[in-house]
Amino acid sequence: MNVLEIDGLTVALPAGRAARPLLSDVSLHVAQGEVVGLVGESGSGKSLTCRAALGALPPRASAEGSVRTVGDDVFALSARALRRLRSEKVGLVPQDPRAAVNPLYRVGDYLVEAVRAAGVPQAEARARAVTLLGDVGIREPERALRCWPHEFSGGMLQRVAIAGALAGRPALLLADEPTTALDVTIQAEVLSILLDITAQRSAGLLLVTHDLELAAAVCDRVYVMYAGRIIEAQPAASLFASPRHPYTAGLLHATPSLAGPVGRLEAVPGRPLGLDEAVPGCSFSARCPHVRPTCTEVVPDLVSQPGAGGIAVACLRADELRDELRRSGPGRADPDHPVLEEQPA
Ligand SMILES: Nc1ncnc2c1ncn2[C@@H]1O[C@H](COP(=O)(O)OP(=O)(O)O)[C@@H](O)[C@H]1O
Ligand SMILES: [Mg+2]
């Protein structure tokens, strides 16, 4: 069963506000029990895709296509049903827990409120909050409930936010860059809690990150986004060795080695396409080392590749480039030791 199913989603601002849609023909799904990565540079449309899953689009934006989240058609829901979807069926793990957890309330008040919003009666809410804190590995949960957010480190507060996201026993977790606001040293720890919890509850997890290597290491499947489009979809196991889109290959090639220095590399020369820029052909053509004249004329469809494996790529030259883009060198990242990089400014 798919806990998230987005089909042909195009989201556009009113005429004159942008030269291209914010999202163009985005299709993706997350099955129950699956960890799915959504990767792309800043501004590619990852957060908007998450918001669409919750039925929350920018004001006055128009949408075509369909979004089914845990069985609900989000664009057809009443305001009340949408609230239920957001508080009970989907868990949203924030990017920055300090921005998500109100500093003026005790941790317990934050959690109890989340549990209450998910329909748990007042009498049971506190006990449930204690259980949730235990689930995310917080020792002495009773004491933690009485703490203030500022008494917690970023990593501990992100655990609290994850506990809050779990309040309604969600079938789908949306984690939008869940570790980029945290210290590098605790990023892996928080990520592993999130992965453990997803597995224990056989929920689906959509993990949004700008870090393709991380996604390839921990996800079952990965979608790569560029300028509002999905340009590649592939099981993580094969993606790392055989990226099929030049953009994906560029992101992976820029990583010198898994054991190499940790630092910020300019992944792909050039910069992403802005919202005020529309190009006639492939939106990556201006940065693509494999560009041909047709690439600047024809928008490539996302085409499923022959054979099993669920690989799809949006590149006119996908077949010709197949062998050239295959990676030699280090194999797939060790899933137990994902390499984590610092968030770019
Ligand atoms: N509420 C909004 N109104 C207008 N434009 C928006 C809004 N939210 C996002 N955008 C634009 O949509 C594009 C995709 O944004 P976003 O999904 O936040 O990217 P990402 O999460 O991949 O960094 C960006 O160009 C951003 O400026
Ligand atoms: Mg974002």
UniProtKB/TrEMBL annotation:
Q: Where in the cell is it found?
A: Cell membrane
- Key words of the record: ATP-binding, Cell inner membrane, Cell membrane, Membrane, Nucleotide-binding, Translocase, Transport
Top-rank lineage group of the source organism: Bacteria
State where it is primarily located: membrane
Q: Where is this region: Disordered?
A: 326-345
Molecular functions (GO terms): ATP binding
Q: Name one Pfam family in it.
A: oligo_HPY
Under the heading Gene3D superfamilies, the entry gives: P-loop containing nucleotide triphosphate hydrolases
ABC transporter domain: from which residue to which, for each copy? 4-252
How the protein sits in the membrane? Peripheral membrane protein
Task: Report if keyword Acetylation is assigned.
Answer: no
Record keyword ATP-binding present: yes
Alphabetical list of InterPro entries matching this protein? AAA+_ATPase, ABC_Ni/Peptide_Import, ABC_transporter-like_ATP-bd, ABC_transporter-like_CS, Oligopep_ABC_C, P-loop_NTPase
Family, according to the entry, reads as follows: Belongs to the ABC transporter superfamily.
Q: Which NCBIfam families match?
A: oligo_HPY (TIGR01727)
Protein name per Swiss-Prot or TrEMBL: ABC transporter ATP-binding protein
**Species assigned in the record:** Blastococcus goldschmidtiae
